[in-house]
Target: TetR/AcrR family transcriptional regulator C-terminal domain-containing protein
Amino acid sequence: MNREAVVAEALGLLDEAGLDAVSTRRLAKRLNVEQPSLYWYFRTKKDLLAAMAQAAMEPHATAPLPTPQDDWRDWFADNTRSFRRTLLMRRDGARLHAGSTPTGDLDRIRRKMDFLIASGVPERDAQMAMLAAGRFTIGSVLEEQADTNPADSTTPPADLPAIDHDSAFEAGLTLILNGLIHRTGA
Model:
C-alpha cells in the first residue's frame, strides 16, 4: 500500500457511494487495513480529501498549456470546458473540488495568466475572469450533479422545463467571455 493506492481507492469509494460516504473507516475496510494505518499517509480526513481533489483534477492539470499562437478567446473557452469535463468525471466531483487550494498547479496557473496578459487582457481582468469562470463552472457542475443524484427522489413539476446542462453552461460561459472581450476592447 502506498499514498497513490490509498487515493485511488478513496476515489473509487467516492464514485461508488458519493462524497458523504467517504470516511477513513470505510476506506480502511476497502483496503483491508486498520483505520489508524491510513494516518501514515494522511493525518486528517481533510488531507485525504485534498489529495483526492488533486488526483481527480489530473486530466485538467495535464491538459496542454496555451501557446503564443492560440487565440486567447478560444483558449479561455476550451480551458473552462476542460475544467467542467474533469469535474464531471467523478461523482460529486464539484463538491470534492470546491474549496480546495490548487497547490500542485500554481506554475500552470501562472503560465495561463501570463498567456492572457501577453494576449492583451489586463492583469486584473484576467485574474477576475479566471476566478469567475472557475466558480461558475463549479457551481454549474454542482447543480448538474445534484440534478442527477440517484438519492434525490423528488420529481419536478410537470410544467417545469427540463434543464439542458450543456446549453446552460455554454450560455453562461459565453456571457463571461463576452464580458471579458468587452473589457479588453477586442
